[in-house]
Amino acid sequence: MEYFIQQLINGITLGGVYALVALGYTMVYGIIQLINFAHGEFFAAGGYMGVILISWLAAQGVPPTICLVLSLGLTMGYCALLATAVEQVAYRPLRQSSRLSVLLSALGMSIFLQNGLMLTQGVYDRAYPTEITRGGLHFGMVTFSYMQILIVAVTAILLVGLNALVFRTRIGKAMRATAQDKTMSALVGINSGRIISLTFAVGAGLAAAAGIMVGLYYGSVRYDMGFVPGIKAFAAAVLGGIGNITGAMLGGFIIGMVEIMAAGYISSEYKDVFAFIILIAVLYFMPTGIMGENVDDTRV
Amino acid sequence: MSEPILELRGVCAGYGNIQALREVSLKVLPGEIVTIIGANGAGKSTTLMTICNIVRATAGEVLYQGRPITGLSADRLPAMGLCQVPEGRRIFPRLTVQENLEMGAFLRKDAARKAFDLDKVFNLFPVLKERRKQPGGTLSGGEQQMLAVGRALMTRPRLLLLDEPSLGLAPLIVAQIFSIIRTINQEDDVTVLLVEQNANLALQTASRGYVLETGSVVLEDSSANLLANPDIRKAYLGE
Ligand SMILES: Nc1ncnc2c1ncn2[C@@H]1O[C@H](COP(=O)(O)OP(=O)(O)OP(=O)(O)O)[C@@H](O)[C@H]1O
Ligand SMILES: [Mg+2]
User: How many beta carbons lie within 10 A of that of residue A300, not counting itself?
Assistant: First the structure.
């Protein structure tokens, strides 16, 4: 029983990370119907920028909490800008082209960004300074590490914040309007180009936050760290019904939970397989996902 | 004579190889209701979409309040007081009725007057107030048309382009919508360019009309004359 609770906590932690990354896929898909294959690279870029900033700020003697918050904010901002640049260079010129061209451009961008990271940061793992979040709360056999508490808290704040942004603010409503009808949104004065940039920026910011948290959690980052989590988060977005915000969050938690439970009760060797089994099953049996076309209210 | 609020000079436009507009010229004066009538595929919607630069003009010029707006990005126009209610209403289906109306006022910063205008739209169309929390896509056709007009009014237009507001609606609703079009024209000083297939209704509402056939203006005259014209009566009024 205690083992199960421990796995539950781990599953929520990992699921939150997938949820954050899945949101970027789903939001971009919702607004321009593109599967942004480069999205996982923002997660990796965030992981690296995070370790660079955290180490540097810590070396300057900045207190740990401030160091974390500052690094998180700056990294999210950096990746948001990076995504905007990627959108301008690789996707905007193809706005009138076929979907396949844009998809190929996204694949190319993914390779470019991954290699850029490899060339500038090297091919070896880079260690995160984990001492700033060592320790945890113990309830019998169950441990809720400070790291997990941090991840769950940050994830919760970001998810709630994103929901508020998309469903409550004027800009969020304009995002949804643009996703639903670009011609009409232009006719009421919404500049769809700017809204699309912003969507990329927000999605990448969330992925960057996830990248830092994964770095802190596992203690290291690698230039190709965006690939597998990227596909798992994509599976989460599809599971939730691509284009659906609530669906992506739900899908992220389900994939994270399934992965942890499978690793704990079946075999940790095969944990990566389950996300893909879910992806294939969803595409085969339920292509619109759990919150697909029938649950309209929470689509972008 | 006052300067036209809208003028098209020899506008051509099309889709790929299809030329949909051939040198269309027309004028709308401030305060007028002007109509464009024509059969299916004549190019009426294309004319409105070209004015808003959703469809690019391949030749000619569009002037709004004396300024050329040809090539100006569509999203710049609402702030200048030019707004279109497009064919098929194009309600944002997954935004609520109220959010649809808020999107009409997307660019406006004047919170107090926005709230005032929202009240006004709710007064014009009480059913929208009842339904304000409901997704726009769940409204009936008539209610969606009301919402589309209401959303356009939220931009505070000086010139309103209306594309077939009567399409698919019951006579009672059509009468209601046209009476509101007259009201906003008279009381709020909104100039209206009205595209209609229901030529009879359009000519009774407008003071002048243009007849469009396969992308060209073939006739322009006062509504009274057009209504009396035997050719028009035969071709567009079902006689
Ligand atoms: N998106 C498009 N792609 C290609 N051709 C188009 C497109 N839209 C319109 N057309 C063509 O342009 C011509 C004019 O169409 P338009 O929609 O302006 O006509 P309309 O007068 O508004 O007709 P209706 O009364 O049926 O709404 C038609 O021949 C139509 O087939
Ligand atoms: Mg039409």
Answer: 23
